[in-house]
Amino acid sequence: MFELSFIWAGIIAFAVLTYVILDGFDLGVGILFPFAKGERDKATMMNSIAPIWDGNETWLVLGGGGLFAVFPLAYAVVMPALYMPITLMLLALIFRGVAFEYRWRTKRWKPVWDAAFFGGSLVAAFMQGIALGALVQGIEIADRAYAGGWWDWLSPFSVLTGVAVVTGYALLGSTWLILKTEGALQRQMQRHAWWCAAGTLGFIGLVSLLTPFQDPVYFSRWFNLPGSIFSVLMPGALALATWALFAGLNADRDGQPFFAALTLFVLCFIGIGISFYPHIVPPGLTIAEAAAPNASLKFALVGTVVLVPLILGYTAYAYWVFRGKVDPEEGYH
Amino acid sequence: MLDSLTAETLARMQFAFTVSFHIIFPAFSIGLASYLAVLNGLWLVTRDQTYLVLFTYWKKIFAVAFGMGVVSGIVMSYQFGTNWSVFSDKTGPILGPLMAYEVLSAFFLEAGFLGVMLFGRERVGDGLHMFATAMVAFGTLMSATWILSVNSWMQTPAGYGINEIGQFVPEDWWKIVFNPSFPYRLVHMVLAAYLTTALVVGGVGGLHLLRDGADAAARRMFSMAMWMLIVVAPLQIVAGDFHGLNTLEHQPAKVMAMEGHYESHPEGAPLILFGIPNPDEKRIEYAVQIPKASSLILRHDLNAPLAGLDTIADVDEPPVTIVFFSFRIMVALGFAMLGLGAWAFWRRLCGTLYHDRWLHRASIAMGPMGFVAVLAGWITTEVGRQPFTVYGLLRTSDSLAPVAAPAVAASLLAFVLVYFFIFGAGTFYLLRMMNMPPASKHLGLRDAPTRTARARKARTAPMPSPVNKEPSNV
Question: What is the ipTM score, two decimals?
Fold first, then answer.
C-alpha cells in the first residue's frame, strides 16, 4: 500500500510530463518560427497549434496549482529559489500567448508579434531548462524556507540544461510539423528535425554525464534497486527510440519521428525521476516531508481521479477534431 | 522615498498590479462566454442570421480577451509561491486543493473546448459546436466559483484547524468551500461580470446605432444589453446589500472603513455620502451625511448603535481612505448602471430605443464602467481585509516570501512594462475590432487567411459534417 503522498508525487510528475511533451512541441514550433519561408508557411505553423496551445499550457497551471495543493512546502521553497527564471518564463509565455491572436489583428505590427512568438517561445523553453538544471543542482533550505542566494540558479550546468531543453523542444516542434504539414515545409522540417535530433541526443549524453557531479547521490541511485532496473533497460530503450526517430525521418514517415521524439522525452523524464527519488526538492526535501496533511491529499485525490481521465478524454477529442494536415487557408480570422 | 519601499510593500504592489490587470479579462470573459452561448443557441433555434452575425463578431473579440486572461492568469498561479511563499506553505493544505479543483474542473474545460468553439463549427457540426460553446461558458462559471471560494475563505475562514507547525489544516471541507461570505461574494461577482459584459455590448451597440440606426445586428445587441441591465442591475444592488450585511457580521472593521465611521455611534450612525478621510486625525472632512441612515441600512433600525474604528486596535485597522473612496465609486457606478437600464426601458416603452441618440451616447460612456466598478469593488474588499491575508489569523507582513527588495522591484518593473505594452496593444486591437460594424467580414487584416477553398476541406476533414448552413462567416 502506497502512501497518499507517493500517489500524488506520481500525479504531479504525470502533469509535469504531460506539460513538457504537449507544450514542448508547441513551444518548439515557436522556436522554429523564424525559419519559416514566407507568410503561408508561418500561417501553417501557427494554425497547426492554434486550437490546442491553450489546453497544453493549462498543464503548467496544474503543475503549479497541484504543487501548491499537495506539496505546499515544495512550492513555497522552489518558487523563491527560482524567482527570476520563473518570472522570466511567465513574461515570455505572455508574449507568445498573445501573439496567436494579435498577429492577425494588425499589418504594420505583424513582425513585432512574430518576433514575440519566437522570442517568447525561446525564452520560456530556456528558462524551463534552467529551472530543471537548478533543481538538479539542489536547493538550499533552512527553517521551511529557501535559504540560498538570488543567483544560485545560474550556473554553467543550468545554462547547459537550458540549451538542451530548447534543442529538445525544437525537435518536438519539427517532428510535430512533419506530422501536420506537407510539401516543401514538411521537407524543410525533416532537415531541421535531423539536426535537432543529433543535438538533443548529444545534450542528453552530456547532461547525463554531468549530473552525478552535481550530487554523488544521483550516481548511487542508478546502481541500487529499484533504479538499477532502469539502468539496465534505459540504454536499450534510448537506442530503440533513437533508431525509430532516424528511421522515420529517412523513410519519410509522417508520424513516427514525432512519437519517437516523445518517447525520448518520456525516457529522460523517467531518468530524472530515478535520480530525484525519494526527494521532491533535492538535496534535502523528501516527498513525504513536503506533503500536505492527508485530509488535503484525499480531498484533492477524489476530484483528480474523476476529472483527469475526463480531461484526457476531451483533450484527445480536441486533437481528433483537428487531426490531419493543416490547411493554411483555414482559420477564422 | 525609495527607502520606504520594503520588500513587503513591493510584493503587495506587484500582487495588486498583476491581479488588477488580470481581473479585467475574466470579468469580461465570464459574461461574454455566457452571451456567446445564448447567441449561438438562439441562432440554432431561430435560424435568424442576425444572431449568427453577432456570434461571429463577439467570438473573435472573446478570443483576444480570453487569451489575455489566460496569460495574465498563469502569472497569478505562480505569484503565490514567488512572493508569498510563507502564505503558500501555511494555507496550501486548504487553498491548494480548491485551486487544483479550479484548474481541473474549469481551466481544462475552457481550454479544451475553446479550440472547437473558435475553429471547429464546420468540423464537428452545429450540435457539438453548441456543446463546446456551452462548456466554455460553464467552465468560466466553474472557475469563478472555485476562486471566489478561495478568496472568501481568506476573508471568512472556516472549517480549519492549525497544526503544530503553524499550517492551516482542513477539518471540514464543506465548511471550507461554503464559508460564510462565499455565496454572497459569488453571486455579487457573477452578476458584476454579466453587468460588465452587458455594458460593453451595449456601448458597442450604441456606437453602431449612432452610425447606422438601421443596422439590424447593432439594434439586436443594444436591445439585448439593455434588457440585461434593467434585469441585473437591480438584482446586483440587492445582492450587494446582502453582501454588505454579511461583511458587517464577519468583518466589521471593513464596513467601518467603507462607511468612514472612525467613531462609534451609540444612537444611530449617519450615512456619509461624501467626504475626505483624514487618517491622521481620524475623522472625515467635509462630510455630507444623512443622520441615522447608515444604521437604517445596516441594522434596519434608525437608532441602532454602530461601533466605529475607535473600537479596533490601530494595528488591525484597514487603510480607510482607499476603502472609503473605492466603495463610493462602486456604489455610484451601480446606480448609474441602473439609471441607464431604466432610461433604456423607458425608451423601449416609447418605441424610441433605437432613435434616442443621447441614450446611445450615454451607453458608450458607460461601456467601460463595469470594469471600473469591478476594480473598485475588489479594491474595497481586498484592501478592507488588510492588514491580514487570512482575516484575523495571518498578517500580510507574516505571509511574505524571503525575498529581497531589489528582486521584487526588478520583477515589478518588468511586469509593469510588459503589461502596459502587451495589454495596451491588446486593448487597442479589441477597441479597433469593436469599432468595426458587426457584419464586417474581417475584423483584422484584409489579407488574413479566409475559408474560401471548400474543396480542400474534403481532404483535410474526411469526417461527415452534416449541417453546414453557415454562410462563409469568416
Answer: 0.82
Q: Which amino acid is at B379?
A: I
The residue extents of the domains of chain B are: 8-252+320-452
Enumerate the H helices of chain A as residue ranges. Answer: 4-31, 38-49, 53-70, 72-81, 83-102, 110-137, 156-180, 183-214, 216-222, 227-250, 256-276, 287-290, 294-321
Q: Is B228 left (phi over 0), alpha (psi -120 to 50) or beta?
A: alpha
Q: Residue A202's Cα: distance from chain center in Å?
A: 18
Strand (E) or helix (H) holding B374? helix B369-383
- Closest C-alpha to A282, from A68, A98, A138: A138
Q: Does the beta carbon of B45 lie under 8 angstroms from any beta carbon of chain A?
A: no
What type of residue is B79? Answer: Q
Give the separation between CA A220 and CA A217, rounded to whole angstroms: 5
Distance in angstroms (rounded) separating the CA atoms of residues B262 and B200: 38
pLDDT tens per residue, range B276-334: 888 888 888 888 888 888 888 888 888 888 888 888 888 888 888 999 999 999 999 99
Q: Does B465 touch chain A (CB under 8 A)?
A: no
Taking a C-beta distance cutoff of 8 angstroms, is the pair A178, A193 a contact?
Answer: yes
Interchain contact B49–A (C-beta under 8 A)? no
Eight-state DSSP code of residue A16: H
Tell me which residue in B103, B112, B422 faces A98 most closely, judged by beta carbons.
B422
Whether B288 and B310 have beta carbons less than 8 Å apart is answered as: no
Strand, helix or coil for residue B440: coil
**pLDDT score of A73 more than 90:** no
Q: What is the DSSP string of A213-274?
A: HH-HHHHHHHTSTTHHHHHHHHHHHHHHHHHHHHHHHHTT-SSHHHHHHHHHHHHHHHHHHH
Centre a 10 Å sphere on the Cβ of residue B43 and count the other Cβ atoms it contains: 22
